[in-house]
Amino acid sequence: MAMMMNGRSSASKMELASPYIPSYDPTTPWQAEHRTGTTIMAVEFDGGVIIGADSRSTTGVYIANRVTDKLTKITDNIYCCRSGSSADTQAVADVVRYHVGMHRMELGEEPRVEVAASLFQDMCYNYRDSITAGIILAGWDPYKGGQVYTIPLGGMQVRQKVATGGSGSTYVYGYVDQHFKPNMTQDECMKFVLNAITLAMLRDGSSGGCVRLGVITKDGCVKHCVLGNELPKFYMG
Hints:
single chain; Glutamine Phosphoribosylpyrophosphate, subunit 1, domain 1; 32% helix; proteasome
């Protein structure tokens, strides 16, 4: 009898000691959807376009990647800035890159920026209930020069001289409205974009890391990376 009692007692202890490990829990940070968090921006200047983004990717509240490249190449002169679900935006960019490549072979010349923007719009609109993708498309072509197109959630398409997107953009609307001016020089535009993204990173918990910039002109795209210790300093009250 004592042995049975001891056996039962041991079994109970074993049952209590064994931890419950769920196979999937969406509230667990590292099992949530991988998102780019994000502050993205594109601005037309006299001669081309400046694009920029932070580099933080989040999985729930967990920072999954501190050095993500959210500036994705479509052609040598056309790039997109991605916000939303990393998987969705990368898949959409891959599909558009394929169609633009086919279009280039048919035409025998580089495609227009607005053609790529329309392809993004079609994808984002047709799959608006299935994907989470906010895109800013920017590029240069000999027909219209530097161009910026916004394709937000839902698949609308709007051309703008300056466009911001992602969770961090809400913190810098005032700064952008106050400091943007048409036909800036390249240096002025780069400083403007760098300052805006830095300010957004200071306030937005889903934006951070380094700032990646791209200068798109008729000669292609030149990328720059500004590390965290090299970012401009601002007062934080």
